[in-house]
Write a structure and sequence with these properties.
The longest helix has 27 residues. The radius of gyration is 23 Å and the shape is globular. Helix 1 packs across helix 3, helix 1 packs across helix 4 and helix 2 crosses helix 3. The termini are far apart. Strands 4-3-5-12-6 form a five-stranded mixed beta sheet, with helices on both faces. A three-stranded antiparallel beta sheet has the order 10-7-11, with helices on one face. With 301 residues, it is an alpha/beta fold. The protein contains twelve helices and twelve strands.
Length: 301
């Protein structure tokens, strides 16, 4: 095996094919020709004297050797990221980059406001923000695509360290003038007659709703469905209907008086938790540590 192969650009192409499962898609993300990706993968396999993928009709899947190499490459990349951050810290320079991945509900109000308030003190820190599903976020952290995940969770995840965990009950989201907006708490039975704005059936929130309604033998029919939380909230605010969300995701809209949140009494709707996730066993760069501390302070306010 040639150790130099582990430092070549071919390794970056290899990781992109692992991530995409396709040479063509990896080439599109890398903005190069597919033939160039194929040549680099073949070169890497030749220099390491082993095949790294199982070639299938619908793509490529890393074999046992490929899985080992991918795990090693991700660790090396994370170590280099941390090394760069630590060197900057020794020089007294507050610089670096934090890669966030969040569920959509936190991407449009909560996370940008959090980043903005953090950068008032740490002006040299740069951010990137991507969205993903609750199931996808732990994978992105494990694969080294993100440093910190902000998500909702019902269960623990393999190789994920939970930096912060806080109850995130589902609440009813109503326009301030809605007939039920002044209630201290509500039940799904009280809300079912109103126009409901709901996410698709793949979402955890929708699944909890269906479990609770099934247990109570409640029948409901959504008036509006969407993948986008912001659209659901806007529909409820404008239609006199009801959407469902955690308070944290729409805190800014509540402060502006656009909507109100009312707690739900139904047991299943109180079993979610907000989590700040990082990779277990990975020492966090100083910038990430500072951001987690800032996030914890904001959550508690």
């Amino acid at each position: 095996m040639d150790p130099i192969a582990l430092q070549s650009p071919a390794l970056r192409y290899f990781l992109e094919v692992v991530r995409c499962g396709s040479v063509t898609e990896a080439a599109e993300r890398l903005e190069i020709a597919p033939s160039a990706v194929s040549r680099q993968i073949a070169r890497l396999e030749r220099e390491m004297d082993t095949l790294l993928f199982e070639r299938r009709a619908r793509g490529m899947v890393p074999n046992a050797a490929g899985e080992l190499l991918a795990a090693h490459a991700k660790r090396v990349r994370q170590d280099l990221d941390r090394l760069g951050s630590d060197i900057l810290a020794l020089r007294g320079v507050r610089q670096g980059q934090i890669r966030l991945v969040t569920t959509e509900g936190y991407a449009f109000g909560f996370a940008p406001a959090l980043i903005a308030s953090f950068r008032r003190e740490y002006t040299g820190i740069r951010f990137s923000l991507e969205t993903g599903s609750q199931h996808d976020i732990p994978r992105r952290i494990r694969d080294g695509e993100a440093d910190i995940g902000l998500t909702l969770s019902l269960t623990s995840e393999r190789d994920i360290r939970v930096e912060l965990r806080s109850p995130a009950p589902v609440m009813a989201v109503l326009a301030p003038g809605h007939p039920l907006a002044g209630k201290r708490s509500l039940s799904l039975a009280q809300l079912a007659p109103y126009p409901l704005a709901l996410p698709d059936r793949a979402s955890t929130l929708r699944q909890l709703l269906e479990i609770s309604c099934s247990r109570q033998q409640l029948v409901y029919e959504p008036a509006f469905t969407s993948h986008h939380l912001d659209a659901l909230i806007s529909f409820a605010a404008e239609s006199g209907g009801v959407a469902f969300c955690g308070e944290l995701a729409i805190r800014a809209r509540m402060r502006r008086g656009e909507v109100v949140c009312v707690p739900l009494r139904d047991r299943e709707m109180n079993e979610r938790h907000f989590e700040v996730q990082t990779l277990a066993g990975r020492p966090l760069p100083e910038a990430c540590k500072a951001f987690v501390a800032h996030l914890r302070k904001e959550i508690q306010n």
